[in-house]
Design brief:
- This protein is of the alpha/beta class.
- The protein has 2 domains: 221 residues, TIM Barrel (Alpha-Beta Barrel); 60 residues, Orthogonal Bundle (DNA polymerase, domain 1).
- It has 12 helices and 7 strands.
- It has a 7-stranded mixed β-sheet with strand order 1-2-3-4-5-6-7.
Length: 299
């Protein structure tokens, strides 16, 4: 029995370091998300909501009650017209600098949502604004508006809403105010966290360009790269691992679970490929200044 558990945990099956709750644009309350993760057999989890740590205390408490090892996290939206997401692991969610950054981003998100809904209304596609706000438990995001477009009958799915109207380059997309990767890494580092590039393949850059960007960001404070993610095709894993070794970056993985049916995501999705999870997680915990909880994971 122990050997089976060991293979599951250190092969990645029982680890998910990228999940979202209703504190941002996920569908489950933080505690319910932890319960869903436990039901999937997860033993090591992180909550990484967009630009907020509001759900961390609730998630951390429930994860502990369920016997899971919990890592407090956040996913900062950086870049400008082209979004770059930086995960922060082991952050102190009470840190004043992180709190100030979160407050600023929250205000920007609210303003962006109003602009998007104004544009939709001007184009003859109004959405019920109160229904949008009623779905928001934490910070507002485009998925909340996409869901309203589905409810209004303009599209059939959230994904269709992004593909036709809200995604980058689509008619009702409003760019976020630019935040540099350097600034995002600084905020995470000052809050005691470890900055990791989320889903690098979603940048849709060629191998040479990606390598150049990662090198530049590494010099600006980036410490790791999320290689094991549903957007990483199996034949691209070796390339990303080579890049991580070349730059001396940590390796992480997560499903990016939101609980939105149209995304087709699932807790733990893609983690079965993470054969070096034990070594990679030990390095991550060392970078966070925490002892790797091997005994807890195998108990």
């Amino acid at each position: 029995m122990t050997q089976t558990i060991r293979k599951s945990v250190f092969g990645g099956f029982c680890t998910d370091l990228h999940m979202h709750s209703r504190a941002s644009d996920g569908m489950l309350e933080p505690a319910h998300l932890m319960e869903a993760a436990a039901e999937k057999g997860m033993r090591l989890v992180a909550l990484t909501d967009h630009d907020t740590c509001a759900g961390v205390p609730e998630a951390e408490q429930r994860a502990g009650e369920l016997g899971m090892v919990f890592v407090p996290g956040i996913e900062l939206s950086c870049g400008g017209e082209k979004e770059i997401h930086i995960l922060g692991y082991g952050v102190d969610f009470r840190h004043s600098g992180l709190a100030a950054f979160r407050k600023k981003r929250d205000a920007e998100r609210k303003n962006r949502a109003v602009q998007i809904m104004d544009r939709l209304e001007a184009a003859g596609m109004p959405v019920e604004r109160e229904s949008v706000y009623s779905q928001v438990s934490g910070v507002i995001g485009r998925p909340h508006i996409a869901a309203a477009l589905v409810r209004a009958g303009y599209v059939h799915t959230v994904q269709e809403a992004f593909d036709r109207y809200l995604g980058q380059g689509r008619p009702f997309c409003v760019p976020k105010p630019e935040v540099t990767v350097r600034e995002g890494c600084r905020v995470i580092l000052e809050a005691g966290g470890v900055p990791v590039l989320a889903h690098p393949m979603e940048l849709r850059s060629g191998e040479a360009v990606l390598g150049s960007l990662v090198h530049e960001w590494h010099e600006q404070g980036l410490a790791g790269m999320e290689i094991y993610h549903p957007s990483t095709a199996s034949h691209k894993v070796a390339m990303l691992l080579s890049l991580a070794r070349q730059e001396g970056l940590l390796v992480t993985g997560g499903s990016d679970y939101h609980g939105i049916a149209a995304r087709g995501d699932a807790i733990g999705q893609g983690m079965e490929r993470w054969d070096t999870a034990r070594e990679d997680l030990a390095r991550l915990f060392d970078a966070m200044g925490r002892s790797f909880p091997e005994k807890e994971l195998l108990s």
